[in-house]
Amino acid sequence: MAHIEKCSAKDLPQWVALRFALWPDEDRVVMAAEAPAILAHPDRLVLVAREGETVAGFAEASVRRDGVNGCETSPVGFVEGIYVMPEHRNRGIARSLIETIEQWARERSLTELASDALIENVDSHAMHEALDFSETERVVYFRKILVRTIDIRNHPGRA
Predict the structure, then answer these.
(1) Which of 28, 101, 115, 149 would you label with 62, given CA atoms 20 to 30 Å apart?
(2) What are the domain boundaries of the chain?
(3) 58 strand-pairing partners
(4) What stretches of 10-128 adopt beta strand conformation (E)?
(5) What is the pLDDT of residue 154?
């Protein structure tokens, strides 16, 4: 059984490695640089699941005050990320991480816990359903760039 605890400075390398496993498209250097600030933020919680000396998983949560899709209250607890190494899955680690986040949120008088997942991430959808989350809505975000940068190397006014 995994032991759930708050992430500490000694866990930073393992935590950052697991964050990169969850979000491989992110910049690893930036991820490592922002990690201490995340740990120190009063509205953030970072948990690690330890099996022996191995950090087998992690979860990050925050208090969001900006309104969360599908929620009726504000602020709400929000699961920013949760990841368990494949070889440690199906042992109740994700459930233990979420239960610890739930307790943290209740201690802050929050009445809702929210999360999100990409539309194509069906494994995450299944995990959320198994952990008693209810899907509230699906959203596709759009953007339109209003200002384009000019490549001065090819600009007609350049000599």
Answers:
(1) 28
(2) 3-154
(3) 48, 83
(4) 44-51, 54-64, 76-84, 113-115
(5) 63
82 pLDDT exceeds 70? yes
The per-residue pLDDT for 140 is 85
Selection from 15, 39, 37, 19 nearest residue 27 by Cα? 19
Q: Burial letters for 101-137: b for 16+ Cβ neighbours within 10 Å, e otherwise?
A: bbebbeeeebebbbbbbeeeeeebeebbeebebeeee
CB–CB of 46/38 below 8 Å? yes
What is the CATH code for 3-154?
3.40.630.30
Chain mean pLDDT for the chain: 93
**Two tokens at 143?**
């953007």
CB 44 within 8 A of CB 62: yes
Q: What is the pTM of this model?
A: 0.87
